[in-house]
Amino acid sequence: MTCKTGVAEGKELLLYAFPPPHPFTSERVRMFWKELRSTRLKVERFQPVKAGKGLLGLFQSKEHIKFVELASRSGYGALDQGDTPAFEGIFEAAQYAVGSTTAAVRKVMEGELVHAFNPVGGLHHARRNASSGFCVFNDVCISIEMLRKKYKVRRILYVDIDVHHGDGVYYSYESDPDLFIFDIHEDGRYLFPGTGSAEETGEGKARGTKVNVPLPPGSGDAAVLAQLPALGRFAKRARPEFIILQCGADGLRGDPIAGLDYTPATHRSITALLHKVSHEMCSGRMVALGGGGYDPNNCAKAWVEVVRTMISR
Q1: What Cα–Cα distance (Å) separates residue 175 from each residue in 171, 200, 303?
Q2: 125 belongs to the catalytic site
């Protein structure tokens, strides 16, 4: 038995890539699609979708949307302190990244798919008023707002295994008791964005609905496997109506800008746990997002494991 799983694929998603020598390239996505085709896994491919300004505005401020649009026209400067350079067309590229994630969510919520994956989603550093860390707009937060406003979904589980702490998601919902966050990342004392300490567990009524697991450089699969029991208990306590997995591949061994030592087994084990929870608690409603990863081969291997695991029952 298999789960009907969709994967976003189309040339529009290749637009979200920065000029050389920036590490965020389109090759990471090309290699994933090539690897996925070689496996002959049965997936439902869906075309990228361009998000309109109204959809962006569910989370992003009008000022930030306008700022990115103007920078995109000029193709000059940076959208943050320098990590996220502007280029002509970056606004439209970001619209496709966001729109493809929200399309994945919509297809799952409306029963077209059981699970879905967008390799150019998971842009978890962007804030309401600012781009950050290669992330122009925050498709995760936009999807959360869409789930709540359009589909009346309240309790959402967000799991993030990108090597970097998902600060844009965490601090936007730090006081939200209905968004449960479990974030495993390299310790912020050694890596951007410098946040995500174990003491950060949510604020006010949301205290205890957030878990940060900072790992020392060099940590491998065993460090993640050790967290599976805690993640399982946390997921059940969350009683989610929808699950979002940000499965960045930049924690894998050999990534050029980070220092963890995972293999694709980490992605397989995390996805398997969440896949099981999704069917036990929310009719399988689960979307995975590619996030970071700057060795294209690592991205291909890890993301294929995510898709393979979501398909299998």
Answers
A1: 8, 11, 31
A2: yes
From 3.40.50.1820, 3.40.50.2300, 3.10.580.10, 3.40.800.20, which CATH number describes the 5-311 domain? 3.40.800.20
Question: CA nearest 5: which of 37, 32, 53, 41?
Answer: 41
Average pLDDT of the chain to the nearest whole number: 98
- CB neighbours of residue 20 within 10 Å: 7
CB-based contacts of 242: which residues, under 8 Å, 6+ apart? 105, 108, 109, 147, 153, 155, 156, 157, 282, 285, 286, 287
pLDDT tens by residue, 276-307:
999 999 999 999 999 999 999 999 999 999 99
- Choose the catalytic residue: 64, 124, 125, 164: 125
Pairing of strands 115-118, 286-289: parallel
Residue 94: Cβ within 10 Å count: 29
User: Can you give the pTM of this predicted structure?
Assistant: 0.98
What's the whole-number mean pLDDT along residues 89-114?
98
**Is the confidence at residue 167, as pLDDT, over 80?**
yes
